[in-house]
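Let us practice reading a record.
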Amino acid sequence: MKLLRKIELLVAIVFFIAGFSCLLAPRFNANILFYVCAAITTISSLVLWYQVFVKKRGITLFEAILISLFSLFLWLHHSIGYELVILIFSIYMGINAIGFGVQAILDFNDRSNTLWYDLLWTLIYMGLAIASYLQRSQDLDLIQYFVGFYLAMQGCQMILELFFFSKPQTSRFYSFRFWSALPVAIVSILPSIVLEKMLSFKANKHPIDFNEIKNDQKVNLRVFIHTGLSGDHRFGHMTLAHNGTMYSYGNYDKAEEKLFRTLGPGIFFSVNADEYINNCCIYEESTLFEYGLHLSPEQEEKLSKILQHVFASSYPWDCPLEVDLKKDPSLKVEPYLEDYSNRLWYRTHCHYRKFYGGEWKTYWILGTNCSLFATRILHSIDPAIHKSHGIVTPGEFWEYFEEAFQDPASNVIHKTWHSANEPSTLYPLQGKNSIQTI
C-alpha cells in the first residue's frame, strides 16, 4: 500500500474511533477536544513565530499574533472555551451562508439558473448559524453528538473509498455527490501539505515519485491543480489544457475588483500550455500537479463544443499594459508588472475574454470560481467526474484525481508535477515564443 493510502487509512481509523468516543462519552471527549485544540493552536503559533523571525516571513506576523492570543485564551479560560467552540462553529456556518448568499445575488443579477439552489443553501446555513449561536451557552453534549456522528461518517466514507473505489459509480462517485466532506479550509490546503512533504523528501536526498502512467492510452485532456507553500498559493488554482492550449477562469481585472479581491468580473483566458506552466513555476512561484485524462472521440467533440460556446459567450478584453502599449510602444513596463494580468500577458501573450452575461459573468471566490468553472466543463464531458456546487476549492479535486488515478476503471491515466524546484519537470521553449524576462 502506498504512503498516501496508508495515511488515508490511518486518518479514517482515527476519525472512526474519535467519532464513536464522542457519541459514547460526550462530556469526557469535550474536555479532550478542548485541550487538543489548545495544544494544536500553541504548536501552530510557535511555527508561525519561527517563520516570522527565522525565515523572515513578515506577512505571517498578524497570523502569529492572532493564533497566539487564541491559544492563550483556550488555555486560560476553560469554562468560556466551550462557548467559544460553539461560537466558532456558528461563525463557520455563517461564512457558508454568506458565500451562498452572495452567489444567489450574483445569480439573480446575471440571470443564472442556479439561483434557487444557492438561495436554498443560504437559508439552511443561516438557520444552522443562528441556531448554534442561540445555543452557544448550553451544554456541549449536543454539539459532541453532532461532532461524533460527523467524524464517524467521515471515517466510514474514507474506508469505503479506499477499498471499493474500483466501482466509481457506486462508491467514490456516490460519496462525492451525496456524502459530506471535510471543511473547505482543510481540504483546500491538502495539495500544499503534500508539496511541503515532497520538497522535504527532496531536501533529504530522497527521490520524488510523482510521475506515473497507468496505461498506454492517449492523454488528450490535462487538468492542473496549482499550489504553493505560502499566501494565496496555498489555496491554489485550477486550469485545463487541450491540444496544447491552457484554459483558465478567474478574477484578473484589478480595477474592477471588490471586497478585497474576492469579487469581480469573470475573465477567461487561453494561452500556450507549456509557456503558461513554466511561467507559473518560475515567475509566480507556484507548483502544478497535473492529471492526464483519456477522452473518447465523442467526449472530445463535446469538449470542443463547450469551448466554442465559451468563446461565443464572451468578448476580448485587453489588460491595462496591452492598452497602454498600443498608445505608447516605448512605455516602461516595470510599474505595470505588479498586476498579475499584465505580467501574464507580457510574458505569455495570453488572450483574455469577458463574458456578456450568464453564470460566469461575475467571479466570486466562494462560488463561481476557477474550480467550479473547470469542473462544470469536466462533468459535462464525463459525468463520472462529480459536479460540485457552492464553496469549491482546487484541493477537493486534487483529492478526487489522486484517488481516481488509483481506480483501474477511471479515465485518469497519468499524473505528474511541475516545479521550479525540479527543473526537469519544466518545458524547453526554444523555437517557441519564449517567456519574456525583464
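A brief commentary: Residues 166-181, 431-438 have pLDDT under 50 and may be disordered.
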